[in-house]
Every structure is written in structure tokens, then in C-alpha cells.
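Collaborator request, handled under Task 6.
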Amino acid sequence: MDLRLVRKIPKLPNPEDGLRSLVEHAPRAEAMAEQMVERFRPAFSALLNYRRRAATLAMLALTAWLFVHVVFGANGTVVYRQKKSEYEKLQQEVKALQKENDRHTQQIKDLESNPHAIEKVAREQFGYMRQGEYVYVAPPPPQPAPPTNKSAEK
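C-alpha cells returned to the collaborator:
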């Protein structure tokens, strides 16, 4: 080990010297700090005002974005109302189909057990008749003549 390197390490200052230096220079440092504060106070005040304005504008922008998102977003109130209207229409359609289904179910029960219902269907749909009855069929209505247009003759 080379001992010459140990001699080159500087001696650390005495802690009392550091404190004495700090106490001697403290008033000057405080005066400089006070001058800096006074010099930059208008800039800091302006910066604070800009920060408040920027924060206010940011909050307004956020509020506007939230409003647009709530009203027109993927699950917004506009879409909600459309879906609700569609749901109500489908509910009405389901009720109408249920009524029609009940009517058909009743008609099937009548055709299985009621002889008058069977006779009615046989007469109306199949043209059946009882012995001795006559069925009158009305002739089809005459077709109206097509209108004559004399503009083609010119």
C-alpha cells in the first residue's frame, strides 16, 4: 500500500469554522433572498393568476366534456331514450302476439270440442253445405276500363 496517497487527502475543516462562517454571512444571504422575492413577486402573482384561470378553464372543459358524454355518449340519455322507446314497442308487440296466440289456442280448443265452431269453419273456409241448402256465389266485380289517353295520338 502506498502511503503517499494518504498525505494528499485534504484535511477536513473544523465544524466550528463552518458554523462561524454561516453566522457571519447569514444577514447578507437573507438580504439577497429578500431582494429576489421582491423582484420575482409580480411574476409569481401573475403566474398564480394564470394558474387559477387555467384551472378554471380546465374545470369548465371537463364539465362540458362530461355533459356531452352523459347526453350523447354510447350509454347517454339520447341512446337510453331510444332504447327505452324500442323496448316499449317490443313489449307492445309481445302483448299483441300473446293475444293472437291466446285467440288461436281458444280457436283450436273450440275446433276440438265445439260442433258449431267446426260447422262454421267447414262452411266458411271449405264451402261445405248441408243437404238441401244452396250456396250463392257473387260474381267478381267487373274490371274498370283503362282510361283513354289521347296524348299518345299527337
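The cover message to the collaborator said: "DSSP finds four helices and no strands in the chain. The radius of gyration is 51 Å. Please let us know whether this matches your experimental observations."
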